[in-house]
Amino acid sequence: MDPTGRHARHTPRAPHPPGSRGRAPGTPSGHDPDAGWLARVMHVAFFLLLGASLARFLLRHEWEDRSPWIIALTGALAALYLLGPVLGTRATPRRIAWLCTVVAVWVVLVVLAPSFAWCAVPLFYTGLRTLPHKAALGLVALLTAFVVFAQVQLSHGGWDPNLIVAPPAVAALATGVFVHADRQAARQRALIDDLIRTRRELAAIERREGTLAERQRLSMEIHDTLAQGLSSQQMLLQAADLTWESDPGAARRHVRTAESIAERNLAEARRFVHDLAPADLAEGGGLEQALRGLAERESADFRVDGTPVPLPDRAQSALLRIAQGALANIREHAAATSAAITLTYLDDQVVLDVADDGSGFDPAASRADGGVRGHGLPAMRVRARQLGGTLTVESSPGEGTVLSAAIPLTPLAPPTEAGP
């Protein structure tokens, strides 16, 4: 499980940076603001303790043979400690060699002057921050034992329980605080990494869904415009071919009609390049004018009921595409002698009805066999559903068909799905 308690996904982890192997899991990096702040505090504490230990020795002791050595070693230890931040925090060979040198100089100082034992606490932190977990704990135990030994030596054989108990207690407290803070930082980093991965996955899913939605939209646009126009042209040209010798006038009319359809298809194709809005709507006049022009081209009746109200562009486009798809189905499948389009404005919705007196079909059977009537009806349902509306089909064999699309006026619902 991850730090949040959820089962972690099996996603690839980023490789360890160079030099990071061997460090304890969750060891703070040099780029962690909290770790940097704690390191600065420990650096200040080290130099304060080092200076205080030297001042204590000089104040309590007369000048001795060891005094120059202690002063020199103190300066050397301060200079060595200043090199630590330059070497970084990872357990590289140079960093480990530096730490061993610092500890060795400090040990010599403690042997010469046991009061320098108080510098062990910042060294605990340095070891925990640099070495792997087990090695760092071993170093802390070793330094603690040496501090106890030095304090006992400083007491000149006098028994003082604090000298035995206090150094291990301080070491345990410092180590516990550091380990707890380190683990908390590791949990936070793991949680942040998980959130970043989740956000990237969600972004990828949204991109895929957007791509699928755009493909579905384009497929509906092409089906309702170019594909239907090409189908009409094919039927008209076939009719012209059949009547070319027997009735040249009728053949020419079919060809001219096919030419006008091709011209409109070309306008639709150019519209795709611009903004994919229906060319009929782009010509002006709104939905009513576009439906009236469509009805004239398809030899259908058109009527408007109720008081027209302004509709959003996407609602007008959807209703026009539904009407185009319904008339295409009538032309290709219904064998109807008449068709009618009715646009009705009600108080809370606008309703588009397309009726014909053709052969009809069984809607239940069409749904059961996967939609034998092709892509048209599913595309119409998706268009209505994306606007929070509904599409119903009433038909039976031999009795014609009535298709009804109802779209709410206000507020129009956002799209609920990308496609069927």
Automatic annotation (TrEMBL):
Assigned keywords, A-Z: 4Fe-4S, Cytoplasm, Iron, Iron-sulfur, Kinase, Membrane, Metal-binding, Transferase, Transmembrane, Transmembrane helix, Two-component regulatory system
Subcellular location field: Cytoplasm
Cofactor: [4Fe-4S] cluster
SMART domains: HATPase_c (SM00387)
Highest rank taxon of the organism: Bacteria
TM segment ranges: 37-59, 66-84, 96-123, 135-152, 164-181
UniProt-annotated stretches for the region Disordered: 1-30
Domain Histidine kinase: 319-411
Residue spans of biased composition, Basic residues class: 1-13
PROSITE patterns xrefs: HIS_KIN (PS50109)
Pfam families, per database record: HATPase_c, HisKA_3
Entry EC no(s): 2.7.13.3
UniProt catalytic activity: ATP + protein L-histidine = ADP + protein N-phospho-L-histidine
GO molecular function: kinase activity
InterPro entries named in the record: HATPase_C_sf, HATPase_dom, His_kinase_dom, Sensor_HK_TwoCompSys, Sig_transdc_His_kin-like_C, Sig_transdc_His_kin_sub3_dim/P, Sig_transdc_His_kinase_ChrS
Function of the molecule: Member of the two-component regulatory system NreB/NreC involved in the control of dissimilatory nitrate/nitrite reduction in response to oxygen. NreB functions as a direct oxygen sensor histidine kinase which is autophosphorylated, in the absence of oxygen, probably at the conserved histidine residue, and transfers its phosphate group probably to a conserved aspartate residue of NreC. NreB/NreC activates the expression of the nitrate (narGHJI) and nitrite (nir) reductase operons, as well as the putative nitrate transporter gene narT.
Protein name: Oxygen sensor histidine kinase NreB
